[in-house]
Amino acid sequence: MRHLILVILCVAGVVGLSACDKAIDKDAVDRDFAGVNAIDGTGLNELMLTAGDPNEAVAYFQRADGMDPDRIDLLRGLAKSLVRAKRNTEAVAAWNKVVSHADATDEDRVSLADAMIRNNDWDRAEATLNAIPPTHESYQRYRLEAMIADSNQNWAKADSFYETAVGLTTKPAPVLNNWGYSKLTRGDYAGAEKMFFDTLRHDPRMFTAKNNLVLARGAQGNYTLPVMQMSQVERAELLHTLGLAAIKRGDVEIGKGLLRNAVETHPQHFDAAATALAALEAPVSN
To answer: Residue 127's domain spans which residues?
Structure first.
């Protein structure tokens, strides 16, 4: 990524030199860099938001914003990069700066609420969403509204928001997984199982949904792995999860068998499963 930025800056420098035969000073370099940013608009900025190290993106947008602090796209880029880098406290501050801009949108306020939730500030996130007009309807808004309803244990409201969010995106796997986990925490294990199957239909590679699906089945006393796409390592990890679910339900011998299977299935040493099995099989002293 650093090489890409260097190449673009070098190209800008060559163009500048060919245009005139003047000495290059610091102000000229700064002007050239600002010019690259202005021309780039959605090119390099978008690349930095989606590729490479998030902390490199943070540094890039911090430099760019320092040169042109009034550009809202650079403020947004910095805020999004901080979210990607999991620097949540800084991300909230950055999104607050975005929403203070004259050109801020309601979706920017939704993004601020998202950053607040990531920072475990649920009350302020709820207040931020409540201040947005109900006419602003987006996938991101309804996904967050559903999560907040979940945190308040308002299940009917959560289901309504999850359903609306699913209808507003072409990639519903993440929100379906959240919806399934919501049902899992309520004790609706059959409903959760169905939701995780729907998740995997949209994204067969999502391991979190696979693990959640196994938890939902285990909670119902179903200790067989479902037919789905999985690697050998994933199979071992899912057997481990299923074994722990069985033990939690009191089916200790079944759980031991699943843990043994997990240890045997894993292509390397599976420390977590081996440790759990050893603890269960250790003799009990009086």
So the answer is: 59-136
